Structure formats: structure tokens, C-alpha cells
Amino acid sequence: MSRKIKLILLGAPGAGKGTQAEIISEKFGIPAISTGAIIREAIASGTDMGKSAKSYIESGALVPDSVVIGIIKDRLAESDCDAGFILDGFPRTVPQAEALDEMGVEITDVISIEVPDEKIVARMSGRRVCKKCGSTFHIEYNPSKNGDNCVCGEPLTIRSDDAPEVVLDRLRVYHDQTEPLKDFYSKKGILKTVIGQEKLEDTTALTLAALEK
Ligand code: AMP
Questions:
Q1: Among this protein's residues, is 17 annotated catalytic?
Q2: What is the pTM assigned to this prediction?
Q3: Ligand 1 pocket test: which of 9, 22, 35 has the largest number of ligand atoms within 8 Å of its C-beta?
Q4: What pLDDT digit, counting tens, does each position of 80-138 carry?
Q5: Residue 7: other Cβ atoms inside 10 A
């Protein structure tokens, strides 16, 4: 594919956006940018931004728009984004999407990965993450080749906001604040929908086909 891809991956938490972002990033050689990962790194290294974001993340609430818009503005200004990029977890509100427009960022594709809430809750309990390299796995659908350890060797952990009661809050937030973005991008004529499949490779095939369309 020769065109430049500036892709937004939409979908509920746990719908598989992060994994698809990693796969597309590798295939097309463009960065996958996860605001959640950037915030978690800031929390781990104890920066001011991390300290102020911590309570929001832990309760499943959204970090204020001004904070995440600032993060994205800085990240998109880096030179590796010139060839295109994938946004995973941003925008999550209509004002965040409007901020992208105001920055003059011309998104080429928006893919919404659709998974019913009850499947999300079941999936999240099996999610495992690597605190060192950021890779994400699922004990059933996408296991690490190293068992309980990451492919980089680090022991895998469960994200604190993947606890079932927090997941329900995150789903509520998704339906209230993020799902309206489907309408926002549908009106711009760039929304594509992918039905999340049981098998990772089946979802990937549908996502890549949506990008070809
Ligand atoms: P994620 O890794 O994308 O599931 O994000 C984890 C958490 O980070 C979310 O539940 C929010 O608390 C915060 N977060 C990540 N991206 C955003 C965003 N675009 N807007 C507001 N909060 C965000």
C-alpha cells in the first residue's frame, strides 16, 4: 500500500485495539501511539503528569481532555509520525477529536472494532501485560510463547484497571463519551467497522481488509 495511513482505532477497552495497532505498526512501519501507555509510563516514572493522572486511571475514568490533547500534540510533532501513524485510545471524546481537527491533523481512516460488552468482560480477565516492553497478551486468545513471562523475559502482570468492577466503569465511560465518535467520523465518511472475532488472526484479516477498501 503506497498511501500514507493516519489511522484511529476505536473500540471499547479490551476490544483488541492495542494488539491490532502493534500488528499494523509492524506491517506498515509506522508508529502506534497509545495515550494509555504514555500515561502509564508517566505514572511509573513519577512525573507530575503521572501523579495527576493516577487516580483517574485507577477508577476507570478518563484523564482530562487538556492533558491527553497535550500528550498527543507533542507526540505527533515527532519526526517518526511524518510517514503516518496509528492512534490507539485517542481520541476518546468529541472535544479530543475536535482538537485533532484544530491541529490540522488529517485522519485518513477510522476503524471501530466492535465486541459485545459481555465478551469484553470475559476477555479482560485473561489480559496480561508486560511492564517492561509494553506487549499485551491474552492467556487464551493470544498467549505469550514464554508462558507466564513476556517474550522479552519479564514476568507478565494484570493491569489494575482490568479488575471486573473497573472494567464495567470503563465500558460505561466508553458508551457515554467515546461511542459518539462513531457518528462524528461517519459524518466525515472515514468510519469503517470491523466485528472483533474469536481468533486474533481473523480480526487482523478484517482490519487489514478494511484498510485496503
Ligand atoms: P487504555 O490503555 O487505552 O485502555 O487507557 C487506560 C486509561 O488511560 C483509560 O481508562 C483512561 O483513564 C486513560 N486514557 C487513555 N487514553 C485516554 C484519552 N484519550 N482520554 C482520556 N483518558 C485516557
A1: yes
A2: 0.90
A3: 35
A4: 999 999 999 999 999 999 999 999 999 999 999 999 999 998 888 899 999 999 898 99
A5: 26
